[in-house]
Amino acid sequence: MIAIDAQPDAFAFDPERTALVVIDMQRDFVEPGGFGAALGNDVTLLRAIIPAVQQLLATARAAGLLVIHTRESHQPDLSDCPPAKREGAPAGMRIGDEGPMGRILVRGEPGNDILPEVAPLPGEWIIDKPGKGMFYATGLQERLAEQGIEYLIFAGVTTEVCVQTSMREANDRGYRCLLIDEATESYFPEFKQATLAMITAQGGIVGRVAQLHELQRALGATHDRD
Length: 226
Ligand code: TIU
Hints:
The protein is of the alpha/beta class. The chain has nine helices and ten strands.
């Protein structure tokens, strides 16, 4: 077991039973001209975490952790997209509508791809999820159980939507969860800070939060590894 400094207190984990989960680092959320930008968001905030996610991936890969990437995505016929999930956005910006990078949040469209800078390597898991959380309708829990995974380290976007939802789902399923501060971001900086505060309040009610260098030091990586 390894223990690292975290908030509100140390996060102890066994690397052999730990997976890194990178949530939804997709072109549609992070690139200019994508879904996130079309909704009026400033994507430069999200792009700023790309180096940290790259370093985190390098650290996890070097340590032999299971690496999992998720994508928020739907079938082309939208059979896995409940009407309630489409209804909120203005016409032309709904899931399945034609956007600047193809049909919004539809599997196989260019915008649905993971950013090339943080692309999965062969053998890493890619989980397509129709919800904000990574367990809903994905079969992930069974796959993690088969691998004996008990600890999950989180990164990705956006902190208060898909990252937090996935972390809460994981916490309810008994996983011990850690979020890496520099490797997650929101379109709304105050929402990120509020989310970190929510996660770590009440003795770490949803998990723990650590700085990237704490994990790198524990796993024997250097700070600027890429
Ligand atoms: N991945 C994810 O967080 N999906 C979202 O829709 N996030 C927003 O902040 N909109």
